[in-house]
Design brief:
Blueprint lengths: L3 E6 L5 E7 L2 E8 L12 H23 L8 E7 L3 H18 L3 E5 H7 L17 E6 L4 E6 L5 E6 L5 H11 L7 H8 L22 H17 L3 H32 L3 E5 L6 H14 L2 E3 L10 H13 L17
Length: 339
């Protein structure tokens, strides 16, 4: 008997709902919030208000596109955290109310675990290879940078993490320094394709073990650009592509260096990436090259499952449903990851 689960994602500024039948995704609807562009970043209060406006039509459309009735649902999975508490409260509250009205259980999902489990999503007409346990996953986004050893669907151990800023934050900060609009990370990727990644060098801290640090790299980039602007006020305009390519190269090489070290230390030869920065073309290329050159099996998520989406929440919810791990109505959101 097929299991239909509705997933709800509202951790930041995207309102998303998805319906999954077992491990096959039937719909994945995302409503973006453009209001934050004027402020150069996500405004939590505006985000939570927009979620309240978007959540009902988004869920309605997800169920409609899935071709089912709401009464066909067996459970509702929702993002409990980490994320913005106001945004999470909208999704959590709606999941509780909707499930209570339907008389079905709710399943809480950790956002970072869901990014990793997105690799197990199947499309209706697409049979793809999925990682085998154990595997390593680099989860990298605007708020997190971690190397996770994944032993099972919910047995995950963080073996490396950033000690300060996340890689996605470094991308966005570099874009802001260059005067690029928010969100800047995708624009750094876009303009960097036409630039020389060796044009400029930026210092990177030597952090022992598998941990990361990107605060020093951000500072190095800031001072470099500041000093060049003193010499030439049009420096950024004349070197945007090279600046983007160079800072991208610095961030991606730092990510890959530690990931390769993790492979050597653990002996695990299956490696995946996940999270918003996994959509970056340079990171995808470097991971593919690493696999081709070493024989390590690599797994790259579809673009639609890289950024925040409810399909990954539904996928994680399905695995928890199978194990009978249900939440109760006392479940409250959390801002920091428990993974």
């Amino acid at each position: 008997m097929p299991v239909y689960i509705l997933g709800i994602e509202s951790s930041c500024d995207d309102t998303s709902a998805a319906v999954i039948r077992n491990d096959v995704i039937l719909s994945n609807i995302i409503a973006n919030q453009k209001v934050h562009a004027a402020f150069g970043g996500v405004v939590p209060e505006l985000a939570s208000r927009a979620h309240q406006q978007n959540i009902i039509p988004v869920i309605h459309e997800a169920i409609r596109q899935a071709g089912i009735l709401k009464t066909d649902l067996q459970a509702i999975a929702f993002t409990r955290g980490p994320g913005l508490l106001g945004s999470l409260l909208v999704g959590t509250s709606f999941a509780k109310a909707f499930a209570f009205a339907l008389g079905i259980p709710i399943v809480e999902v950790d956002h970072m675990q869901a990014h990793i489990l997105a690799h197990f999503i199947r499309n209706p007409k697409d049979e793809k290879a999925v990682p085998e346990f154990p595997f390593l996953c680099l989860t990298v986004s605007g708020g997190h940078t971690q190397i996770v050893q994944v032993n099972s669907h919910f047995d995950m151990k963080v073996i490396g993490r950033t000690i300060d800023d996340a890689a996605g934050e470094a991308f966005d900060k570099a874009a802001k320094i260059m005067g690029l609009p928010y969100p800047g990370g995708p624009l750094v990727d876009k303009y960097g394709k036409d630039g020389n990644p060796e044009a400029f060098r930026f210092s990177r801290p030597a952090i022992p073990g598998l941990d990361y640090s990107f605060s020093g790299l951000k500072t190095s980039f800031l001072y470099f650009v500041r000093d060049r602007l003193r010499e030439d006020a049009s420096f950024i305009d004349h070197h945007t592509a090279d600046l983007c390519a160079s800072i991208q190269q610095a961030i991606v090489s730092a990510l890959m260096e530690k990931l390769q070290l993790a492979v050597r230390q653990t002996g695990i030869r299956q490696v995946a990436i996940a999270g918003g920065v996994s959509a970056n073309s340079a990171l995808r290329k470097e991971l593919t090259n690493f696999g081709d050159n070493t024989g390590v099996r690599t797994f790259i998520p579809e673009f639609s499952y890289s950024t925040d989406n409810a399909a990954m929440i539904a996928m994680a919810g399905y695995f928890r449903y199978l194990s009978g791990e249900f939440a109760d109505l006392s479940a409250s959101p959390y801002s920091r990851s428990t993974v």
